[in-house]
Each structure stands twice: as C-alpha cells, then as structure tokens.
Amino acid sequence: MKILLASSEVFPFSKTGGLADMVGALARALAKAGHEARVVTPLYRGIREKFPAMRRVDWHFDLPLGLKYVQAELWELDLERGLKIYFIDHPGYYDRAGIYLENNLSYADNAERYIFLSKCVVHLARYLPWRADVVHVHDWQVALVPALIAQQKSEGWGNPPRTCLTIHNLAYQGVFPEDAFMLTNLPDSIFNTEGAEFFGLLNCLKAGIAYADFITTVSPRYAREITTEEFGCGLDGILRRRQKDLVGILNGVDYSEWNTTKNPHLVKPYSIGRMAGKKTNKLALQKELGLPADESTPLFGTISRLAEQKGVDIQLGALAEMLNTNMQFMLLGSGSPEYERGYRDLSRHFPRKVAVRFGYNETLAHRIEAGCDFFLMPSRFEPCGLNQMYSLRYGTIPIVRAVGGLDDSVVDWTENAQLATGIKFDEYSSRSLAKAIRKALVLFNQPKLFLVCRRSAMRADFSWDRTVHEYINAYQSGIQ
Ligand code: ADP
Predict the structure, then answer these.
(1) Within this chain, do residues 14 and 159 fall inside the same structural domain, yes or no?
(2) pLDDT band at residue 252, thresholds of 50, 70 and 90?
(3) Domain count of the chain?
(4) Would 354 be classed as within a structural domain?
(5) What is the CB neighbour count within 10 angstroms for residue 140?
(6) Cα end-to-end distance, the chain, whole Å
(7) What percent of the chain lies above the pLDDT cut of 90?
(8) Pairwise CA distance, residues 57 & 361, whole Å
(9) How confident is the model at residue 480, as a pLDDT?
(10) Ligand 1 neighbour 219 (Cβ under 6 A)
(11) What is the CATH number of the domain that holds 342?
C-alpha cells in the first residue's frame, strides 16, 4: 500500500512527546513490512543542518489561507527503502525556537501554522505523481485534512485517498476562536455542531472525527474510555456516534532505539541473561545525579511532561509520605513551572534521596530507564504511554494507574502471578499510589521474585512488527 502520513512532530527530526516516537516508528515499520510510506512534517529550526542529505524538491506551494495566499517550499529526505520524509519549508511559521510554544506560551498563530500545514498535506496528496491509497493524519494539528479532502471531493476531485485520523490524546483538540475557521476556506456548512464547531469555537480534532473515513486511537482501553463522559473531554457524543469506525491499536516500541544491548546512551549493556550491567547503570546514574551510589537502595524514576494528565499531584503526595523509608527518587521532566516548583521543593526536603532535572534530555531518559528499579506513571488518563513499555524492556518495573494503554501493556500480580510485569493501582489518590510503592518495596526485598518479574517484563514484546498489521487491516478494510 501507499500511505501518506502527516504529523506536526516526527522522531528523529522533532519531538515533544510520544506522538513523535509513534509516527517515526510506524512509518519505519510500514516500510519494513514492504509498503511505501511518506511522511509530511514541518521543517523546524535546525533540522536541515542535522540532516544534510535532504534535497530541495522542485515544488512550490501557493495556497489560499483565508483572504491571502501563502507560499512555501518543499524538501525531501529518503530515510530508508520505502520511506521518504517531506518537510514543509516556511521559515515564518516553523523556523522558531520552539515547536508549539516558547516560555510556556503557545504561539499566537498556531491555528494559522497548522491549518497551513494541513493544506500542504492535501495539496501533496492530490498533486504528487505518487498517489497515496490512504492519508493517515495524527492529532489536531493535521485533523482538518479529512474535511479538506472531503470538500475537494465534492468539488470534483475524483477518487481521493481514504482518510484515517489517529487520536493520540483527546485532551488536545486545537480549539480556536471562530475567526480561525475562515483560514480553512471551507464552506460555512462545515462549521456546525456535527462538524468543526464546538460551542461557537473552531475545534480541529472534532472536524477530524467527523470527516475521517475511520479513526484509530493508541490503545484498546482508551478507545473505549473516550466514548464515556469521564474521559471524552466533551467529544464523547460524536465519538459514540462514530464508534463503529473507531478502533484502538496499542502503539509499538521502536526497539532499535529503545534497547539495552546496543545503546550508545548506556554506561554498560545488559540483557535477560546478563543482568550485571543493570547494576552498573544504576550506580552510574546515582552518581551522575548526585545521590548516594548504593545498590541496595530501591531507586524509583519518572520521565514525563509535567502536565496535569501525568498525575503530578498524587505523585508529590505519595512521595512526601514514602520518602521517609529507604528509597530514592529521580525525575526528568519539563512543563508547568508550578509542578517544577513542587518537585524542586521535594528535592530540597530530601536532598540525599531525591534528584530532579528539568528540560529535555534524550540521553538521560535512556539512563533513567536503565538505572532505576521502578518507574512511576500514575497518570490521571493515558492514551497509550510509551515510557512504561520502555521500562519493561529495560527491566525497570512500572508502577502504573490502570487506565488507557497503561492497563493494556502492564500485567499485575493479581492478573497473572507467573507473568506479572508490573504493579497497578486503580484509585486516583496519593494513598493508592503510596500503597503501590509499598508493594514495590516488598518486591525489592525478595530478590528472586524481583528477578522473575524483571525477566517477564523484559520478555514482553511490543514491537511494531506485531502491531503494524493492525494498521494495514484498518487501512484496507476501513476498520477491523
Ligand atoms: P506523552 O506523549 O503523553 O508525553 P509518552 O509516555 O507516550 O507520553 O511519551 C513520552 C516520550 O517523551 C517518551 O519517549 C519519553 O522518554 C519522552 N520524554 C518526555 N519528557 C522528556 C524529557 N524531559 N526528556 C527526554 N525525554 C522525554
């Protein structure tokens, strides 16, 4: 099949979270499975310098955006057999210090930046000599693509590609004042409660849900959750109406990036059969982050965007209670200054037990996954979550709230004592999380059992080779 993917971030070119990892890995997996995948994404600052093999394409965009016309150039990079990346080059929109925001403030013209990107995607789908069978768009930034394609179809585009929307996180919908709708140049008939309108505002994700031929989200449990009022973020009604075209497919992991045997970020490689290296990584990590290097102290870690979704409030509460026991905790995160302050206070309070690092650091992320004994992910909701799957492969036992993809990817003792890979809790409270941490401490003190659990975790297979077929089925049949 020929699949044109579109995303506002794609690893290794740009990344703020799991979206980038997923799109990069899915594209590779599609190519590896013998399909042709091409990905459209913005040319953000610094990408061209890092990937000098990219070439300018003889192609010029001149597209209507409200009352004006906007121009852009196109660059391409052949990543591997069957996989090409297209970069939209508009310096005014994309050559900036941040991707979506700077100094914690979203760019004021995000609607314009991503409506333009969506229009470029549609233009390529329609006019490239390479004709896609499916256009697969990810999240709100490109969620207007299906509506734009449907509109062009009604105006005479014969036989356009089918459209698939993947929802990576329903909490981010791309909601803008009504004026922004004008930038789409779509007819007013689309701006209604069954389409792009949400209480008088433009809602890009909702338009995608209304107009995509089929919809996927990133775990089976999240696919069920988002049709309920509790997790539906105001869109559960329209999602229920589209339920027969909605499927949950658990994200895979790119094990060529996230592994413990050939990983330039790690101090020492290790594997199921040779676990000694994990200890070396733990001691090195404790040293690197300025905590007492001690193998016998259980080490907990978190890598996260510091957003409400991630359960920061219950984590701070549980840690304040549990840090009086013999344990250490480290955090790598970035996001809300208020949450950063919470963790900074915690580390001041427990200077020999808590280490925090703010900002984005890929190397440290790998080292924390490898060096810790336990990984905490107490999310309020979690569409899929990748870090817990990385933890599993690194033999670092995840402690997760049983929601969304966390529930789908971790096996608790109570579910299967032989195959348990982690610890789950249900109630969203510091008390429940503290109880789960207590269970972890008990496990840590039973080295044999702990090793069995680690080995089960490391054996769990979330490779894309397994999941990519589910996407192919969805592309081919519309829905499984
Ligand atoms: P989300 O997409 O909601 O942020 P995921 O668990 O799906 O959560 O994916 C997060 C991805 O971002 C992982 O690859 C994780 O390692 C990475 N990540 C998050 N915060 C940081 C950070 N501060 N430094 C480095 N990597 C980070």
Answers:
(1) yes
(2) very high
(3) 2
(4) yes
(5) 27
(6) 17
(7) 96
(8) 33
(9) 41
(10) no
(11) 3.40.50.2000
The C-alpha atoms of residue 441 and residue 280 are separated, in whole angstroms, by 21
Which structural domain, as residue segments, surrounds residue 59? Answer: 2-252+465-479
Q: Find the 361 Cα to ligand 1 centroid distance in Å.
A: 10
Residue where the block lists tokens 């016998």: 296
Residue 236 C-beta-side C-alpha neighbours within 13 Å = 12
Q: Are 253 and 390 in contact (CB under 8 A)?
A: yes
456 and 475 within one domain: no
Task: Report which ligand 1 atom has the smallest distance to the Cα of 168.
Answer: 2
Helix (H) or strand (E) holding 375: strand 374-377
Q: Taking residues 250-263, what's their average pLDDT?
A: 95
How many whole angstroms separate alpha carbon 248 and alpha carbon 220?
4
Tell whether pTM > 0.85: yes
Q: Are residues 357 and 218 in the same domain?
A: no
Average pLDDT score, the chain: 96
Do 48 and 69 share a structural domain? yes
CA-nearest residue for atom 4, ligand 1, is: 17
Q: Is the CB of 82 under 6 A from ligand 1?
A: no
> What is the Å distance from ligand 1's center to 305 Cα?
6
Pairing of strands 354-358, 246-248: unpaired
On whether both 440 and 475 belong to a single domain, the answer is no
pLDDT of residue 461 exceeding 90, the answer is: yes
Q: pLDDT tens for residues 5-41? A: 999 999 999 999 899 999 999 999 999 999 999 999 9
Average pLDDT over residues 120-147: 98
Distance, CA 365 to ligand 1 centroid (Å)?
8
Q: What does the DSSP 8-state code read for residue 461?
A: -
Whether pLDDT at 479 is above 90 = no
Integer Cα distance of 390 and 386 in angstroms: 6
Q: What is the mean pLDDT of residues 84-96?
A: 98
Q: How high is the pLDDT of residue 478? A: 55
Q: Which residues contact 222 (CB under 8 A, 6 or more apart)?
A: 231, 248, 381, 382, 383, 384, 404, 405
Q: Please choose from 172, 263, 305, 366 the residue to mutate so as to test ligand 1's pocket, defined by most ligand atoms within 8 A of CB.
A: 305
The number of residues in the chain equals: 480
Q: Can you read off the two tokens belonging to residue 343?
A: 């963790």
Do 212 and 150 lie in one domain? The reply is yes
- pLDDT tens digit string along 69-80? 999 999 999 999
Residue 416 has pLDDT above 90, yes or no: no
DSSP state of 127: H
Is 395 domain-assigned? yes
CA 149 to chain centre: 26
Separation of alpha carbons 308 and 303, rounded Å: 14
Structure tokens at 297: 């102290």
Ordered DSSP codes for 38-59: EEEEE--TTHHHH-TT-EEEEE
DSSP 22-33: HHHHHHHHHHHT
